[in-house]
Amino acid sequence: MTGAEVVRELARRFQAGDRDGARALMHPDILVTQPASLPHGGTHRGHDGLDRMGAAFAEHWDRAIRDHRVYDTDGVADGIAEGVVVQVTTQTWTARATGRAATVDVVELISVDGDLVTEIRVFPQDTDLLLGLLDA
Question: Which residues span the domain enclosing 121?
Fold first, then answer.
């Protein structure tokens, strides 16, 4: 599979609720970086790190993801390492504490080696807007 195909399949499995299937596409030592300002933010390593990040996310948010756009950068973008795929999604985040919601685009730089995702760098469009949803 190409990197873009791996990312599309990962998204498909994730959206279908196939957590084990999605995890099978992630390297055991995967690195995920979220903005540190978010309550689930920071750097998370390995499947255990993903579990902790997911638990922290679920404490604060419900989320709906739509409009997956996947761009394979191989040979296309200067300055982006080989094997990096760009995924852009439109996400609606709802704060569990307040019920308030906002829709933002989220850009992810996803590194793929072989058929496994090795790193995901996550860039929500407006973290200030999202954090404001948490305030009563």
Answer: 3-134
